[in-house]
Specification:
Length: 542
């Protein structure tokens, strides 16, 4: 019996999984970070400068460069090293000089609206008749040829305006938390709306990257220009639902009541077409009804813009140098650019301010991380993760060929913030299950701050994807969405007043703890298998 028991015990020990390695957490340092971050936070001052003073920060505009100058000055004052910008090709920049729109017949009414970024201007105030049209294909050009000169066009029918219902402020309740901690089976290709880990990043009115749709829009804008159209008005998407992340069923209604979600004109071919303006749906609908009742409608429009030909985007970079592992880096990132409709407060001044504050906290406390902690504020995220992709290709590797750069091996981790003003609730682990036992220990001292969730799945639509695409451990923090989907994302209401102070303070403290932990552990964070090249490697790649 004793012999059989010994054999059984040997078998159990032999097949049992190894115990998770205990993380060597510096609780004294974590306490210092929490004290500085929670009690002496400067994050709201950063947000004043980024949103109120320098917003909006459209890539290619003077505002984003001025904001970068301010950030670099702050980094230098805090004692960060290697403060610099890295440029990459972008194309023509754009900024707004003046905009106003008034209904002048049948009655005077100021119109709530916003021009689309990269729209051409009117060259001054113009007054024009308003008519409604419906062009669905090139075949419709003949129907309207010769009838549009000197007119402002309403290009969509009226949209019903629903009463607000359901949750407008999204918080991680028990159901949402449980769902975040699962991995759903992907929908059959072509039959489902794939995951939008980013939340609210869906296109408006179809896929803007579809080549056929792009080609038709270019022809349509040229037709309007050739016909002498004064301007085109729309009221945004046909849907009043923001496309949220399928991982939490974050389908959320857009709040109307003067909130405008303008979208973007054709940046790649700018300047092109005619002036384009998105109006509040209630003001747009009134004009549609007037036209349908044969009541003459006139609008005075003044849209003045400026195009910038420098052709460069940039990322803003700074570092806290490491000590014995200084050649390895932990990167904190957030996208610095915004859309043009407001001041880019929750998308994404909050993420940038929190990451800047995380760096300030570590320096202010006087900690000496083993690895270099690098902060990167990306440009061009709104146009397709352009800044982070340029950085990854220049420094880490090319996802198309999977040809890696020497610095690839030295990146311990990348952490990203880009889901608004809500507090951090956890981390999307990006299907990197080996980090679970590590992160479980990291979040234990942060549970009182609400950090409890480890979501196993891969999420998309923001800058951590650029790192994940070349096999670097890249993670997006899970945040409370609050009003992000319903009110602020890409709207004229994305302003400082929508920021939740306590939550952004928490973001910075949590990000600082994660950065410090990653910088101090003996080993870099575990990596997934290197992804397959997105295209076969050519001879030049080899």
């Amino acid at each position: 019996m004793l012999r059989r028991t010994a054999v059984l015990l040997f078998f159990v020990v032999a097949v049992a999984p190894p115990a998770a390695q205990t993380e060597k957490l510096d609780y004294a340092a974590i306490g210092q970070i929490r004290d500085e971050g929670l009690n002496r936070s400067q994050v709201m001052d950063h947000l004043f400068w980024l949103a109120d003073r320098y917003g909006p920060r459209l890539t290619g505009s003077p505002q984003i460069r001025d904001a970068s100058d301010w950030a670099m000055k702050r980094f230098t004052e805090w004692g960060l090293a290697n403060v610099h910008r890295e440029e990459w090709d972008f194309g023509k920049g754009w900024s707004l000089v003046r905009f106003s729109a008034h209904l002048v017949e049948p009655e005077v009414q100021p119109l709530i609206g916003f021009p689309k970024a990269w729209s051409v201007g009117t060259g001054g105030a113009v007054t024009a008749d308003v008519i409604g049209i419906a062009i669905e294909s090139e075949a419709d050009f003949t129907k309207y040829r010769g009838q549009l000169k000197g007119r402002i066009l309403l290009t969509q029918p009226a949209r019903p305006v629903r009463m607000l219902e359901g949750p407008l402020i999204l918080k991680m309740d028990e159901t949402m938390t449980g769902e975040a901690e699962t991995t759903p089976v992907p929908a059959e290709r072509g039959r489902g709306a794939g995951g939008r880990g980013r939340g609210g990043r869906g296109g408006r009115g179809g896929n803007p990257d579809d080549p056929a749709a792009q080609a038709f829009q270019q022809k349509l804008q040229q037709f309007y220009k050739d016909e002498g159209v004064v301007a085109v008005f729309d009221r945004g998407s046909d849907s009043d639902m923001a496309a949220g992340g399928s991982e939490l069923s974050w389908q959320q209604q857009h709040t109307d009541g003067g909130t405008v979600f303008p979208g973007t004109a054709d940046r790649r071919n700018a300047p092109a077409g005619v002036p384009q303006v998105t109006l509040a749906v209630e003001h747009y609908n009134r004009m549609v009804r007037l036209v349908e009742h044969n009541v003459p409608v006139k609008v005075e429009l003044d849209l003045r813009v400026q195009f910038h030909d420098d052709g460069k985007g940039f990322n803003t970079i700074a570092e806290i140098p490491g000590t014995d592992l200084a050649g390895e880096v932990v990167i904190l990132g957030a996208h610095f650019d915004s859309v043009n409709a407001a001041t880019g407060a929750t998308d994404n001044a909050t993420g940038c301010a929190a990451m800047m504050e995380a760096a300030r906290i570590i320096k202010a406390v006087g900690l000496a991380p083993r690895r270099t902690i690098r902060i990167a504020l990306w440009g061009g995220e709104e146009e397709g993760l352009l800044g982070s992709r340029a950085y990854v290709k220049a420094h880490l590797g090319d996802p198309q060929s999977m040809r890696l750069e020497p610095d690839h091996a030295g990146v311990a981790a990348y952490f990203n913030l880009d889901n608004g003003t809500g507090r951090i609730r956890g981390v999307w682990m990006q299907s990197n299950l080996a980090v679970r036992p590590i992160f479980e220990q990291w979040i234990a001292p942060l549970r009182d701050l609400g950090v409890t969730i480890l979501g196993p799945r891969s999420v998309s639509q923001t800058d951590h994807v650029s790192f994940d695409a070349v096999g670097v451990p890249g993670f997006q923090f899970i945040q409370e969405r609050l009003e992000y989907n319903s009110r602020t994302h890409h709207s004229n209401m994305d302003v400082y007043d929508r920021i939740q102070r306590d939550d952004v303070i928490q973001q910075a403290a949590v990000a600082a703890v994660f950065a410090y932990n990653a910088a101090m552990r003996d080993e870099k964070l575990p990596r997934k298998a290197l992804p397959k090249p997105q295209r076969p490697a050519s001879e030049s790649d080899r």
